[in-house]
Amino acid sequence: MVAAIRNAEWCAWFPEDYRWAYNVMLVLAVVPTGGAEVGEIDRVCRRLAGHVGDDERWFREWGAMGDHVRGLAEKAEARGDRRAALAHYRRATSYYFAAERFRFPKDAEALASYRAMTDCFRRAAELDDRYRIEHVEIPYEDTALPAIFISAASSPDDRRPAVLFMSGFDGNKEHNWFLGAEDLIARGVSVLSLDSPGVGEAVRFRGVPLRHDYEAAGSAAIDWLEGRSDVDADRIGVMALSLGGYYASRCASMEPRFKACVAWGAIWDYHRIWRERIEAAYAKQLPVPGEHLVWSTGTSSNTEALRLLEGFRLADVVPRMDCPFLLVHGEDDQQVPVSDAHLLYEACGSADKTLRIFTNEEGAAQHCHMDNLSIAVPEINAWLADRLGASAG
């Protein structure tokens, strides 16, 4: 029997609808890192009040806020205020990201909104003189995967540890910026934020679908990092969130060059997760509309997508892992049960492994800790910097 959906009582906006509530939380979560403004979020949510479930209206209202804030950025640029323009472009990035997530099909209008998001992030990066932010291409089979590299090095020959940072089922390389990238740089760890197969620009503009053997992307990323003079090839880790808990665990188990692994949210049997969702006619807690599955896998039906997901199981994979492993999960994660975290932890073959469950009492108990990143991110990043032997320069 499928468990009844619980109201999202942890979210003041749209508590009656998990998907809408959780996605508002995604935007709220990046306020401390400059990715959004509470007043702007509130304005959008007030316009959406009484329209829960109307994804077209969601697309229009968040997109309109993106347009508004991008306009502020352009005006600030015109008057020579780089700092204000940078801040506005960063927030516009998040609002376009929120808008496009629910839009199906991924038609020309949806893709234009997504392109506005990537353009705003790129312009913000160009205005940010605090960091060396590079938009790069990672050679991958017969194409390339788009990525963002932020160096912690003080010079081109200052070899620093690095982490491959991937999102999950429905994130992207731009959103990763707001999830602790600056903190990692401050700790002396360079960041390669990747749009991996089935994710971000890779699937939208290059037709690269989701796949189970994610080490193909992980190995491509390490090959690229090893070619940089400012990266210590012996100190490269991998971290990913949500479905990325599968990506990172798979990569670290199959690619021995990774020296540390963070699964930011457990995935044990993704086929089971989606089988249950489909059997419940998508009545279970979902982060995005159910159509995302068929689209991101490049399949033509749920049946075909489920066949592809049969490979997304870790029981026969993670016993091979031998690098340090950190698994973090929320006690009240309503997308993936905490029991899956215990299964993954027990099966992992690493001698140095840590399971951290954030509780309801302390906060950060929801999926990937989006209800309180401020306590989760420092723990994750401190562990990663320690295992990679990083020291801030």
UniProtKB/TrEMBL annotation:
<dbReference type="Pfam" id="PF06500">
    <property type="entry name" value="FrsA-like"/>
</dbReference>
<keyword id="KW-0378">Hydrolase</keyword>
<dbReference type="InterPro" id="IPR029058">
    <property type="entry name" value="AB_hydrolase_fold"/>
</dbReference>
<dbReference type="InterPro" id="IPR050261">
    <property type="entry name" value="FrsA_esterase"/>
</dbReference>
<comment type="similarity">
    <text>Belongs to the AB hydrolase superfamily.</text>
</comment>
<dbReference type="InterPro" id="IPR010520">
    <property type="entry name" value="FrsA-like"/>
</dbReference>
<dbReference type="GO" id="GO:0016787">
    <property type="term" value="F:hydrolase activity"/>
</dbReference>
<protein>
    <submittedName>
        <fullName>Alpha/beta hydrolase family protein</fullName>
        <ecNumber>3.4.-.-</ecNumber>
    </submittedName>
</protein>
